[in-house]
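Weekly structure sync, notes
Attendees: PL (lead), two postdocs, one rotation student
Agenda item 3: pending single-chain targets
PL asked that the sequence for the first pending target be pasted directly into the notes so everyone works from the same version. It is reproduced below exactly as submitted, 225 residues in total.
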Amino acid sequence: MIRIFAGYDPREAVGYHVFCQSVIERTKRLVSITPLSGKQRDGTNAFTYQRFLVPFLCGYQGKAIFLDGSDMLMLADIEDLESLFDPRYAVQVVKHDYQTKHPRKYIGTPMEARNGDYPRKNWSSVVLWNCEHSRNRVLTPEFIEESTGEELHRFQWLPDSLIGELPREWNVLVGEHDHLRTKIAHYTLGIPEFDHYADCDYSKPWLNTKSRLLNGLINMKEISN
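Predicted structure, written out during the meeting:
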């Protein structure tokens, strides 16, 4: 079974469910999807810090995948991502190195905010976790509560040699990157549910996935009646 932890923010609840639908539709493997949410801190979303609890939640055993979830769409089989696991590393991420083209994000919504640049931005939005790596045992609830966002999102508890690199197609930032082999579309500026992003790149597969999700719910309601 593939263990997946996905960020859930109630302000983007539809995005979380569309993401789960896209994962399930594209894999034949048994998957376990656990939503991660919690208290907001420093004006961040509801799962910004919870992602670093994944090794703890897994009892520091095995491997697991964290994805932002609420603003992503899976366009490939997640088994292909899991197959990239390399036990030499404590984590594996897509190592983005870019300057944003968009100074604001979530435009036209109550979530609208400045979209600043900082080192290792979006590295932690897709993480292939080696939960049993000894260097990840420091990730306790107490450690995470006491650490800053900068320390955590830049993986400062690890030497760079233990941060493995995933192919870029596993975390393509919509509106920032062009990529024809996209396997995970990451709507980091805003999901197509929001009017300003309704025609963004990869909006059609997102909206089509949402439609299939809602049709399934309607069919279930008809059956229950």
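Discussion points:
- The chain has a mean pLDDT of 93.
- Residues 203-224 form the longest helix (22 residues).
Action: rotation student to compare against the earlier draft before next sync.
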